[in-house]
Design a protein that fits this description.
Blueprint lengths: L1 E4 L4 E10 L1 H5 L5 E11 L4 E5 L1 H8 L7 E2 H8 L1 H10 L2 E3 L9 H13 L3 H8 L17 H8 L27 H4 L16 H12 L3 E6 L2 E5 L11 E7 L8 E6 L4 E7 L2 H11 L4 H4 L3 E8 H5 L8 H22 L4 E4 L4 H8 L6 E9 L16
Antiparallel strand pairs: 1-5, 1-6, 2-3, 3-4, 7-8, 9-10, 9-12, 10-11, 12-14, 13-14
The structure holds flavin mononucleotide.
Pfam families: Nitroreductase
InterPro entries: Bacteriocin_Proc_Enz, Nitroreductase, Nitroreductase-like, SagB-rel_DH_2, SagB-type_dehydrogenase
Protein name: Peptide maturation dehydrogenase
Length: about 375
């Protein structure tokens, strides 16, 4: 049997801070710090504490070529090899009897097949939330509290270059886009009963995520043209829709097909279950929960990484693609007379489970939504004066 290291592995010397109560009572410094090695291997989707000997052993086994297990055992000791195989940081080739940790090997294969940049894979996999409630799990400070804690923020605008000789530009002329640009705002007060008309949802989805033109850039390489730009013309962002109140569309989970312009049902939901899922999707940001639809933007990474293999900028491009789509979504919502929202404070793992997405291949980036505004404003919004 042969073994090799997992495809992507980062090892962090993690410092855990705590209160040293004994030192505190004896009047000495009260902060205690302990250090440990943490293995961050994206295919495992969990942090693993290892010891210094395991760190050294991992450095002795490569992640590309296979090594005879017997040779590795002679070099590192059988117990060491066994411990790293059990943790899923070393993987065997599955040949012969006694193959261990098949699950870890399979996840490693999925990771290798996507062509992730290693740092991007780690950043993505270890920044996902599960069960986070932003109000409870993490303090969500007001601007007053922030200023009290940190002082004033860095100034909102800066001068650079020869500011004395700055060239004053003519006032911006009015234009047709102003009707949307100057009315767009992030809605945080949705009418909990108002439906979203199906024709509004249809236009929002088609003009944000739908195909406007198709082009064969090479044999077998079909690309779409959409209303937002996309890195490499690849449009990897898929739209997964949580429908709550759209007449004629049953509450549930759907995938929007950009070419067929159709909602593919993925799971039906009772209204209460749909509401609870919406709450969990946006990490309990109650100001978004009443929106009649939410659209999850998840990047099909293989589509972008097909061209941008192991590329330093590819993950950044996925984030930018979703950002462009969200602005288009906002502007279309504004055109329909409604506020929209986008949030990156989402429970990716809840979303992945709901839609059956594998985070190594379908990267949840953000959630947007829209709906009719409530009569009053209880949560802060930055609206233009009407
Ligand atoms: C990437 C991104 C993430 C955001 N995340 C949140 C969020 O988690 N919660 C929220 O209430 N608003 C969120 N927003 C909305 C911003 O707070 C909002 O754009 C900002 O306050 C300016 O207000 P405006 O959109 O009305 O101009 C996000 C916006 C962007 C672009």
């Amino acid at each position: 049997m042969k073994i090799r290291r997992c495809a992507v592995l980062f090892i962090e010397p993690r410092e855990d801070l705590g209160i040293d109560w004994a030192a505190l009572f004896s009047g000495a410094g009260a902060l205690s710090a302990s250090l440990r090695w943490v293995a961050l291997a994206p295919h495992l989707d969990r942090e693993t504490t290892i010891d210094a000997a395991q760190v050294a052993a991992l450095g002795a086994i490569g992640q590309t070529a296979w090594t005879e297990r017997a040779d590795a055992e002679r070099q590192l000791g059988a117990a060491m090899v066994e411990s790293l195989l059990a943790l899923g940081l070393l993987l065997d080739d599955g040949a012969g009897d006694g193959s261990s940790n098949i699950a870890a090997r399979e996840r490693d294969t999925v990771l290798r097949e996507q062509h992730w940049r290693p740092l991007s894979a780690a950043a993505h996999m270890f920044s996902r939330w599960d069960g986070m409630e932003v109000d409870k799990g993490m303090h969500f400070p007001s601007f007053e509290e922030l200023v009290q804690s940190y002082g004033a923020p860095p100034e909102p605008a800066i001068e650079r270059g020869d500011s004395e000789h700055a060239i004053a530009l003519p006032a911006a002329q009015s234009g047709p886009l102003d009707a949307q640009l100057l009315r767009r705002y992030t809605g945080r007060n949705y009418d909990p009963d108002a439906p979203l008309p199906p024709e509004v949802l249809a236009r929002l989805l088609q003009r944000t995520f739908g195909v406007q033109l198709q082009s064969m850039l090479a044999q077998e390489a079909l690309v779409f043209k959409k209303t937002s730009p996309s890195a490499g013309s690849l449009h990897p962002t898929e739209a997964y829709v949580l429908v709550r109140r759209v007449p004629g569309v049953a509450p549930g989970l759907y995938h929007y097909h950009p070419l067929k312009h159709a909602l593919e049902p993925m799971a039906a939901l009772e209204p209460a279950a749909a509401s609870e899922l919406a709450r969990q999707f946006v990490a309990d940001q109650h100001w978004f929960v009443d929106a009649p639809v939410m659209v999850v933007m998840a990047a099909r990474v293989a589509r972008n990484f097909w061209k941008y293999r192991n590329h330093a900028k590819a993950y950044r491009a996925l984030m930018l693609d979703a950002g462009h789509l969200s602005q288009t979504f906002y502007l279309l919502a504004t055109e329909a007379g409604m506020p929209g929202f986008v949030t990156a404070a989402v429970n990716e793992k809840v979303i992945e489970r709901a839609f059956g997405l594998d985070p190594l291949s379908d990267a949840v980036v953000a959630v947007c939504g829209c709906g009719v505004a409530a009569a009053g404003q209880t949560t802060l919004e930055l609206r233009y004066e009407e």
